[in-house]
Amino acid sequence: xxxxxxxxxxxxxxxxxxxxxxxxxxxxxxxxxxxxxxxxxxxxxxxxxxxxxxxxxxxxxxxxxxxxxxxxxxxxxxxxxxxxxxxxxxxxxxxxxxxxxxxxxxxxxxxxxxxxxxxxxxxxxxxxxxxxxxxxxxxxxxxxxxxxxxxxxxxxxxxxxxxxxxxxxxxxxxxxxxxxxxxxxxxxxxxxxxxxxxxxxxxxxxxxxxxxxxxxxxxxxxxxxxxxxxxxxxxxxxxxxxxxxxxxxxxxxxxxxxxxxxxxxxxxxxxxxxxxxxxxxxxxxxxxxxxxxxxxxx
Length: 298
Description:
This protein is an alpha+beta fold.
């Protein structure tokens, strides 16, 4: 879908051709969706930086899906104080996620930057599950490199998808998110050695993506970061933080528990309360509600 994005009031994601088709890039401003995640989950600064990077990377994964109902779930279990870090992205640009311990906030690094690597940990794996509407989902898994997330996703693309990739992710956060964004660059089949060297030597320019987004905005960041690589914007999208949970979906969850479990809930709890980890909403069901669902389960 081609179109214009008002980067002053919303996030944006750009599909970009580089070097006359020898490489491609995804550039995303995810400031607003990361701020919504921070507000929804009450994230500490370090937790916000970690989940924000993870959401941004997953939004880019989602942008590469083809089918309207396709989805991708990226999970990091690194053994750090944040616990599990989860994000789900869809082809329509929506993304949602959570961390087990949103309050975790380890001391800053020696250079005063937020210590995302220590919060996430690196003794674990990054797992990517793509549901493409087929009988079996695609599952890719790699060991974590650093827990800093950008390096881990770059390693995932290189090893699991056999596509060498440059990945930059960043979140600048104080009392709220000031800027967040990401950049993914991948060579296309047949990319020349000269083009590959141009991409590799450009890598240091992409390190502080959030500062670039903050200063230049999405549109001008294209030329600030990629101007020397002959960028051509092919497509635009608007990523958003959105949870698709609903009472109807939670009813199906309860019915799937079966008659015995529902009868036990009616007898011992006289109702049920289901918490959605992605949006922090509670869905409450009275004893009467459960009895009606029990009839459906039967």
